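As the next step, I selected for study a record pairing a protein sequence with its backbone structure tokens, which the following lines show:
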Amino acid sequence: MKHCLLVLILLCFFRFGLMASNETDDGKGNCNDVLSLEAQRAVGGAVTKLGLALLEKLQSGSEQPNIIISPLSISLALAELALGARNKTEEKLLEILQAKDMPNFHETLSCLQEQLTAKAVKMASRLYLLPGFRVNQDFVDRALNLYKSEPAHLTSIEEVNRWVEEATKGHITNFISSLPPNVALMLINAIHFKGEWQSRFDSKFTVKDIFYIDKKTSVKVDMMMGSKYPLSMFVDRKDGTQVARFPFQGNMSLLVVMPMPVHGNLSNAAAKLNISDLYKQFQSEKSMHVKLPKFKLEFKQDLQQALTSMGLGLLFTGPDLSRISPGALVVSGVQHASNMELSEEGAEASAATAVTLVRTVPTFAVNMPFIFALVDDTSYTPLFLGIVTNPNPGATTEQSDDPKTETESSMKPSKVPLSDGTLNDGPHRENMLSYMLNMWKDTVPQQFLGHQEMEDGN
């Protein structure tokens, strides 16, 4: 039997440090009234589980050392596909979407999409149909009503690429190079986020610093510096991770999860990641010295293999998509592309004591591989999720000495910029050392601290 092909394409771009957009979509006027916080977070948890499952299946390599995906974009595209599925295909899609036992899943996800659109998140969906292809009007109407998926004629690659470029504000260009000969329709979802830091960085204090890819390899990166930066964070001793929350204006946050070298690794940390639990552990902000790498990364991959290993192989062999069309349809691929740019643009002047305050306030330095999530603070929905092992993949890597232990590092004086602007800090030398010692002092009875404080002259 000859199959027509359906192509899912997911595109996303987000850029930190820019003014938030005021654009919103017209949609269900009563969504804010009917969408409970519990329902929002249930859908947010489902999106998180899908994203983490994909992260586990995707593999980084020398050409793409960093993995950046949009669980929300992928969830929206698969949910729209589920509208056209029946029987086993619909069951598997809802299972992967973590929605089998969730009442009114499509309506809740639709309302959440509209709420996020009002928070500096630009979303666009399009249903490209080959002229003359017979499609069920009910599917087209539901896709438009629930997911704002505008129908359009599939006339050329140039037309698709032009729409993609416009939807991502020019950040993803020439995305499609060719189409399968039997393609009948394409579902495309695009997400674009731009937001301004709540506490901004000053570009005057951005310097060359070392990012430790592993114990033996490092790379120089542009490191943004913030002194007395208000940061909410905690140390998870059980999982061996350091977790920090960088808020944006507009109820969004960047969460950074960085395993401590002697305790854990990225894979273990990603497998245990629970965004809802992380938010419960964040405490009030404290003034800290912060070092955050500045970078621009790109990721592009067909998710067919990953989705197949998760149990969705039938999409690519013989799915039941009869709610879309009475003819035979198979999915030819699920293309996903993401861009990530982290910068200090729009920053206001900050204190000129960025380096000198290193040892007088706790420090959170992102100078090792880390996990990140761009999250809606209300629903805990991750718009973007990823693993960064090398924030400057185009640079030449260097051999590094073995990391010094925290004890050895803490006994050494602060480093100052070298002549080339590079800060000579060891891996995890500053990461949370002061903070962990302060937490330890807060929990140990004072009679056990008196002797040490006398020795320190405090």
Remarks:
- Residues 285 and 382 are 22 Å apart (CA to CA).
- Residues 203-293+349-443 form a domain with the Alpha-1-antitrypsin; domain 1 fold (CATH 2.30.39.10).
- The chain has two domains: 4-196+297-341, 203-293+349-443.
